[in-house]
Amino acid sequence: MNEKLRNCIEKKTTSYTPIWFMRQAGRYLPEFREIRKKNPDFIKLCLNERLSAEISLQPIKRFDLDAVIIFSDILMIPYGLGQKIEFKKGIGPILGDLNFNVILNTKPNDFIEKLSPVYEAIKRVKKEAKDKNLIGFVGAPWTLLMYMLNKKSPKNNFDINKIIKNKSLMRDLIIKLEDIIFLHTKEQIKAGADIIQIFDSWAGLLPKNKLSEYCYIPTSKIVKNIKSLEIPVICFPKGIGENYIDFCSAVEPSCISIDYEIEPQWIKENLHGTPVQGGLDPKILLGDREEIKKNINKYLDVFKDYPYIFNLGHGVLPETKPETIEYVIQTIRNKK
Ligand code: 1CP
Q: Which of 126, 180, 268, 308 is at a distance of 20 to 30 A from 79, taking alpha carbons?
């Protein structure tokens, strides 16, 4: 078993730099696009255990990576809670109206039943990729709440006050999400996931005085529960700037995934030893190789004697050439 990712996180080994990429299974790979073309309903694709397993394995067939991430989506949780979801080409996810009674009354067993193909896909991947760490994932409560209430991507315009105006409802929803998110991770772990990543892709929308209530406190409960199962948790609270340090003190993740706005040297000096993942701006991979190499070396040099997992500061962009991913991996493997 290749435990290189887990060893970096748990034993804080620094002699080898494990590599994987957020969004490594998906949009930039022609073999994914081929399958996607024939499967216009994205949710159905995520619930097709055979294809979902096949897509998860596509990147490791091409590249020398240390982990597989299961092909699924953070929005499978609102789907499992009964909210309608559609993925529109060029627009992204569009969610249906939220029925609070349906959501708050969803029974754990019904949720697990509805998402059972996700767990079956993990079992298949585990069998096929015995020599890799297998990463399960969930969205953090805030990012999920944001999609559930905003009903679309906040990319173009977003008003936080509209989202959080009903305090008592927010409280009920957060409690429900804390339970369901943990349930979904527990089922992924039972099926074979040996690391969990929590994506809080929109944590950066929260003003500083709301981070504790909507990001740190709910996330820390989930992290504590996952750690009690002896499974390491990587947290990615994207876009919170210098608050990464407060996040780590409050949440105590096993590993912190950083975005491209954070200076790696600064985070290393302020973290007190929490293993770090990622950082490199995915846009760099669209440029020339000299620039790519220079930027990879920046991260590898800063984290030379520090537990560090190579990854990007966000997902691989759809325009990225697969050959560039190969080049990045070779550059890291050949570094003396
Ligand atoms: O072909 C398509 O149209 C589908 C594109 C796609 C893919 C390949 C979506 C729609 N989701 C996924 C898979 C996915 N999503 C994975 C598994 C693959 C892997 O990582 O290798 C993972 C981990 C996610 C996680 C995810 N989904 C996040 C967190 C990570 C991040 O990028 O910040 C988020 C925010 C989503 C929501 C989502 N799903 C899909 C889209 C286009 C979006 C983003 C919408 C937005 O911009 O708000």
A: 126
Using an 8 Å Cβ cutoff, are 68 and 120 in contact?
no
Q: What is the pLDDT of residues 67-107, one digit of tens each?
A: 999 999 999 999 999 999 999 988 899 999 999 999 999 99
Residue ranges lining ligand 1, Cβ < 6 Å = 22-27, 36, 42, 69, 71-75, 87, 92-93, 137, 153, 155, 199, 201, 315
Domains in the chain: how many in total?
Answer: 1
**How many other C-beta atoms can be found within 10 angstroms of the C-beta atom of residue 127?**
10
- Rounded to an integer, what distance in angstroms lies between the CA atom of residue 335 and that of residue 328? 11
* 217 burial level (CB within 10 Å; 0-12, 13-18, 19+): middle
In this structure, the number of other CB atoms found within 10 A of the CB of residue 253 comes to 26
Q: What is the pLDDT of residues 220-264, one digit of tens each?
A: 999 999 999 999 999 999 999 999 999 999 999 999 999 999 999
The Cα–Cα gap between 278 and 299 comes to 9
Mean pLDDT of 316-330: 98
Residue with tokens 């996810």: 93
Kindly indicate the confidence band of residue 1, based on its pLDDT and cuts at 50, 70 and 90: low
**Ligand 1: which of 73, 85, 325 to mutate, most ligand atoms within 8 Å of CB?**
73
Q: What is the CATH number of the domain that holds 37?
A: 3.20.20.210
Nearest partner of 245 among 232, 258, 234, judged by Cα: 258
The Cα–Cα gap between 148 and 145 comes to 5
What is the 334 CA–ligand 1 centroid distance (Å)?
31
The alpha carbon of 73 and the centre of ligand 1 are apart by a number of angstroms equal to 6
- For 203, half-sphere exposure in the C-beta direction (CA atoms, 13 angstrom radius) is 31
Identify the residue with better confidence: 166 or 52.
52
- Residues spanned by the domain of 99: 4-333
Locus of tokens 């999920």: 144
* Cβ atoms 46, 72 nearer than 8 A: yes
